[in-house]
Design a protein that fits this description.
Strand 5 (318-324) and strand 6 form a beta hairpin. Strands 7, 8, 9, 10, 11, 12, 13 and 14 form an 8-stranded mixed sheet that branches. The chain is an alpha+beta fold. The longest helix is centred in the last third of the chain and has 19 residues, at 660-678.
């Protein structure tokens, strides 16, 4: 492993010294962030909750804006900053031992709407004193600012003066505790006391100790330590490794809705929105972005659903489903997770144990196994994981060593437990476990029939394991390749749900081998707590109260798991305690023509950020001498006057129109039917939108037919009805379309 170089330290010192002159030039700092290539997280909110450009910033937040990105992106950004600022220092080539900033909580201050005048000046004052000696009052005052917590503040202090300050965060706390330094209270005296204790423990620089703490924290999850049941040794400074392996995160809102009339590219834009969340640094052609998007869908990090009038809570969160028991062939009812609950459970993924080696699936058979009954025999599962075993409870605790056939198993079982038929399922399970499972095969440990929580490699033949308190005496040694803190949804691995049988083979077509390979890939641990995106198309077409139920509160950013105001609910069917992770993103689309924004569920309005997707005539060109941009603009102006802006026409209808025939098809099959729907077949107003009254008759799309009321009805004055017909020949003539946006016309 290469030695750490800590090239970031002189670069950070130079940037900190340069920042000292910008307290009264904060708008310039914001502009510099834009100039170096940071294009997200620079929008403020005023008292009316309107988006405004950020004009104020503190030096700690300035650093955090760089540290929210992955390592390679940081290198580029700092190199550009050093160039723009004219600093006489080399750009950093590593970030060993320096913690990443939380990309969802970058700022150390709140939006302008909640910001008080003293907050940002306090952070500047702390920055200045920190470079010579911290002031207790300023330190305490800074911690009162919403957005500035003790962890974030100690990380930021470490950025600007790594020789003076040490970060107290989730990566360093276990190491500090191991060397006898308790978690300090969020006060300056307690923090300084912790720094003194670290210095007494080691004379290494704080940057090296930060890296050592991170490495020790990772080592505590090593396979050998957990599988053998031995606790990790007291961490010691190990070989260096970059602490910046976590994926780049995003400043996208947790809940957002793209709204606009039909054809404005809302669903099209969800691909870019999802990628901005999952891979903020990715850029490429539309084809490349779609390929990247599809890869995330295949990896279950993106799910897509369309709301409709019949969509329910049972589809979205959880509900009771009927299934046939594979053993008894009887109908059984079980609680099945909906798409949102599945996504949330997957988002909570944390690998407790990882073998960290490549696993070739070729020639291996894969078996589903239950290690005790989920929820009632958790001790069996825990023992298996700690001891590197798989245990099943059939067989009356007898020893089945040396059996050569299914009949041998049945005979020995009968001797131990009395009357047993060779066709009974316990004999089948024992025969599978003892004789059919081979060395190198894989076990997938289930948690009920909807989740799995561990994957292991069989490393021994049958073992008889004597236990004092239960009958789980039939064993195989197992190298646990993956152990998950929370069971993952079956869809992360399977094409269908697990059966309740204790052990059976998972065959191709049932198990998705590509998904299994990804779960077992050496880099899989990097997907811990990876963000997940649920795209909800036509979100306003569903009954929001019915679909979200109690979760409408839990999706709020401040109510997410891990937040100070976090909430959890007891779900009605499973009785599970449930909360929404803060790495689950909801991206909705809303067609304003389906329902006006004014009538939208207020609960949804308050919890989502709304982004308008208006028609973009400027994206259109000309065809056959017809200016499509002007044509769309004028039609929309008329629709807005006659009906309102929720029912405009989107530019997407005309994207790709390159001939008069194509334009004719769009008008005949899409535009005219949509106008009929908008205006409830009020042909007078449809004709106004198309400017037909000012066109020559051959160029009118719609024609009003004369009729003789007396001939039709035998009398006159029956309500002044009218008859209209579509002039099909008009669609073939450029003048018909040109006449839509002509200011004057010659009616004949």
């Amino acid at each position: 492993m290469a030695a750490a170089t800590f090239t970031w330290i002189p670069a950070f010192r130079a940037v900190a010294a340069w920042l000292a002159g910008y307290e009264t030039r904060q708008p310039e700092l914001v502009q510099i962030l834009k100039d170096v290539g940071i294009d997200a997280g620079l929008d403020d909110k005023d008292g009316s909750d309107q988006t405004i450009p950020l004009q104020a910033i503190d030096p700690f937040t300035f650093f955090c804006m760089f540290m929210k990105y992955g390592v390679e992106k940081r290198k580029q950004l700092f190199a550009r900053l050093i160039e723009i600022a004219g600093l006489d220092v080399a750009a950093p080539t590593d970030f060993d031992g320096v913690p990443s900033a939380n990309a969802m909580k970058v700022w150390l201050f709140p939006f302008q709407r909640d910001r008080q005048d003293w907050m940002i000046p306090t952070l500047w004052r702390l920055f200045k004193t920190a470079r010579s000696g911290l002031d207790a009052d300023t330190f305490a005052r800074a911690l009162q600012i919403p957005g500035t917590g003790f962890t974030k503040l100690t990380q930021a202090l470490f950025y600007i003066a790594p020789e003076r300050y040490f970060p107290i965060d989730t990566q360093t706390r276990p190491w500090l505790q191991a060397i006898g330094v308790p978690k300090p209270e969020p006060t300056l005296p307690a923090y300084l006391a912790a720094l003194d204790a670290v210095r007494k423990h080691s004379n290494q620089p704080f940057a090296a100790l930060s890296l050592a703490a991170w490495e020790a924290n990772q080592a505590s999850l090593s396979t050998a330590e957990v599988a053998t049941g031995h606790p990790p040794a007291t961490p010691a400074p190990p070989a260096v490794k970059s602490s910046n392996a976590k994926p780049a995160m995003t400043t996208q809102p947790l809940n957002q809705i793209l709204y606009g009339p039909p054809g404005t590219g809302k669903t099209y834009a969800t691909i870019d929105k999802a990628l901005a969340i999952l891979d903020p640094g990715f850029s490429g052609s539309r084809e490349q972005r779609k390929q990247k998007f599809d890869a995330y869908v295949a990896a279950e990090q993106i799910k897509f659903v369309t709301f409709h009038q019949s969509f329910s809570y049972e589809d979205f969160v959880e509900g009771i489903r009927a299934e046939t028991n594979a053993t008894t062939h009887q109908i059984e009812y079980s609680v099945e997770d909906g798409i949102f609950k599945q996504l949330c459970n997957a988002a909570r993924r944390r690998v407790l144990q990882s073998a960290g080696k490549h696993i070739d699936l070729t020639g291996r058979r894969i078996w589903k196994i239950s290690l005790g009954e989920a929820g009632t025999e958790e001790g069996i599962y825990e023992d298996c994981i700690q001891q590197g075993l798989a245990l099943i409870g059939f067989g009356a605790a007898a020893d089945y060593s040396g059996v050569q056939s299914r009949q041998d198993i049945a005979s020995r079982y009968q001797q131990a437990a009395g009357q047993v038929d060779a066709s009974d399922y316990p004999v089948t399970a024992l025969n599978t476990f003892i004789r059919q499972v081979k060395l190198g095969d894989l076990f997938v440990v289930t948690q009920g029939n909807l989740r799995f929580r561990a994957i292991g490699e069989v490393t021994s033949d049958y073992l008889h394991v004597l236990r004092e308190n239960d009958s789980y005496a039939q064993g195989r040694k197992v190298n646990w390749l993956r152990v998950y803190e929370t069971g993952l949804p079956y869809a992360e691995l399977m094409e269908n749900r697990f059966s309740q049988m204790t052990i059976y083979e998972l065959r191709p077509g049932s198990i998705n081998l590509d998904k299994l390979a990804k779960l077992l890939a050496p880099a899989e641990a990097a997907q811990d707590n990876a963000p997940r995106v649920l795209i909800i198309d036509e979100i306003n077409r569903g009954n929001i109260s019915r679909i979200f139920g109690e979760l409408i509160t839990l999706i709020e950013a401040s109510k997410r798991a891990g937040q100070p105001e976090a909430l959890e609910a007891t779900l009605p069917y499973s009785k599970d305690k449930f909360s929404v992770p803060d790495n689950v993103y909801l991206v909705g689309t809303m067609n304003t023509a389906d329902r006006s924004l004014a009538g939208l569920d207020v609960a949804l309005r308050r919890r989502f950020v709304f982004e308008e997707m208006p028609p973009r005539p400027d994206l259109l060109g000309s065809v056959a001498g017809i200016d499509l941009s002007q044509l769309l603009s004028v039609m929309n102006q008329r629709i807005e006057v006659l009906l309102g802006r929720d029912h405009l026409l989107g530019h997407a209808y005309f994207i790709g129109v390159e001939s008069l025939d194509a334009l004719k098809t769009v008008f005949r099959r899409q535009i005219l039917p949509l106008l009929q729907e908008y205006f409830f077949e009020d042909w007078e107003r449809i004709a106004l939108v198309l400017n037909d009254p000012r066109k020559a008759k051959p160029h009118r799309f719609l024609s009003k037919l004369e009729h003789d009321e007396h001939a039709l009805f035998g009398q006159t004055g029956l309500g002044g009805g009218s008859r209209w017909q579509i002039n099909t020949e008009a669609f073939d003539q450029p003048e018909s379309y040109l006449g839509i946006y002509a200011q004057t016309g010659t009616a004949e």
